[in-house]
Write a structure and sequence with these properties.
heterodimer, A: 114 residues, mainly beta, seven-stranded mixed β-sheet, 56% strand, globular, B: mainly beta, six-stranded mixed β-sheet, five-stranded antiparallel β-sheet
Chain lengths: 114, 109
Amino acid sequence: ETGVTQTPRHLVMGMTNKKSLKCEQHLGHNAMYWYKQSAKKPLELMFVYNFKEQTENNSVPSRFSPECPNSSHLFLHLHTLQPEDSALYLCASSRKRGGQETQYFGPGTRLLVL
Amino acid sequence: GQNIDQPTEMTATEGAIVQINCTYQTSGFNGLFWYQQHAGEAPTFLSYNVLDGLEEKGRFSSFLSRSKGYSYLLLKELQMKDSASYLCAVRDSNYQLIWGAGTKLIIKP
């Protein structure tokens, strides 16, 4: 148990569906991250929020839309996804963005797009 | 470009020692992390090196040579529960984490 929870753990959706992934951290951190993890590939950073403000968007397609209502919660809204978006989506948090902060990860949402 | 290299897969025997190497080429260096990830679970933090040398933590040790762009994770007295993927990540000059693809470690009895 890392103090970062994600729901749902598994999700199957069609290309025309809309769904949301939720992440919650109980560590008192101020920075939160979304990563995509595909088989045998490095983690891909998607979005970073620091004190609720989005500080990075690494050229992520607009069919992924993040939302950070407060420092403890992070959402990833999904719509009109493609089969190649099937992957493990990991949320992480750290005390702050930058510096020498360690990131703590949630268990991920395994997404399958049909 | 920035790059982290680590072996895709390694196999070792229970009770033995294994060394997982990581080499990196990044724009600047502000520390190197090792994470362990069991299948279907969260990556969990194992170690952090920012200065050259060996950091020991129980059965796990991590070594760094900044001049060679090289690190290794040493696992001693291997147990079946050590079967997992091990991720190497380097923080660059912009404090971005650059990740390797991970090394899948298989432990055999």
